[in-house]
């Protein structure tokens, strides 16, 4: 097994590689299912919350791999568009970076609702820039950059308690 995969497994909970692989699969499936269920609901994203809590608990590397294994396939199944995969990949990078390096700081300073607001602005802001550079249509993204930060405030406030167990692993 490569050094990179070993370091990813080392950051995940569990006292063995098989247990860490089981947690990796569980997080991937949680994100995959939430992305499939709520993709077409404008402004509502539970996957942002799950990804943010995982990033805060385990850092950039494992969370980025979890995001790649869950969000990119879900977007491909839903849209069958390869350019969307590129946009999703480059949107995942700043979102996971923000959550893993500054998530705990934002929660301690401003609370969970503002973390949801900031993560949503970073997600859709980077998605719009990358989408424009690739020549994609922007109406859904423009709608979501207005709706999702506002809807993420109560979503992160209400549902963050449901996923706090991830921080305890």
The proportion of residues in beta strands is under 5%
Spatial extent as radius of gyration = 15 Å
Largest sheet: none
Name the average pLDDT.
Answer: 84
How does the helix and strand content classify structurally? mainly alpha
Number of helices: 7
In helices, the fraction of residues equals over 70%
**H and E order:** HHHHHHH
Tell me the total number of β-strands. 0
Give the overall shape.
globular
Low-confidence stretches: none
Give the topology, please.
Blueprint: H1 3-11, H2 17-38, H3 46-58, H4 60-79, H5 82-110, H6 112-134, H7 139-159
List the main descriptive attributes of the protein structure presented here.
169 residues, mainly alpha, 7 helices
Please give a structural write-up.
This protein is an all-alpha fold. The protein is built from 7 helices and no strands. It has helices at residues 3-11, 17-38, 46-58, 60-79, 82-110, 112-134, 139-159. α2 (17-38) packs antiparallel against α3 (46-58), α2 packs across α4 (60-79) and α5 (82-110) runs antiparallel to α6 (112-134). The mean pLDDT is 84.
């Amino acid at each position: 097994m490569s050094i990179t995969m070993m370091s990813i497994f080392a950051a995940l909970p569990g006292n063995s590689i098989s247990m860490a692989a089981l947690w990796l699969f569980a997080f991937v499936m949680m994100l995959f299912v939430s992305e499939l269920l709520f993709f077409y609901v404008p402004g509502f994203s539970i996957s942002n919350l799950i990804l943010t809590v995982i990033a805060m608990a385990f850092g950039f590397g494992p969370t980025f791999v979890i995001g790649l294994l869950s969000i990119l396939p879900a977007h491909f199944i839903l849209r069958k568009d390869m350019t969307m995969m590129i946009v999703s990949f480059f949107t995942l990078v700043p979102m996971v970076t923000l959550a893993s390096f500054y998530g705990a700081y934002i929660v301690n300073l401003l609370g969970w609702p503002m973390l949801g607001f900031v993560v949503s602005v970073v997600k859709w802001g980077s998605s719009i820039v990358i989408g424009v550079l690739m020549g994609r249509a922007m109406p859904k993204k423009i709608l979501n950059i207005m709706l999702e930060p506002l809807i993420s405030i109560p979503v992160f406030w209400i549902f963050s308690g449901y996923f706090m167990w991830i921080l305890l692993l």
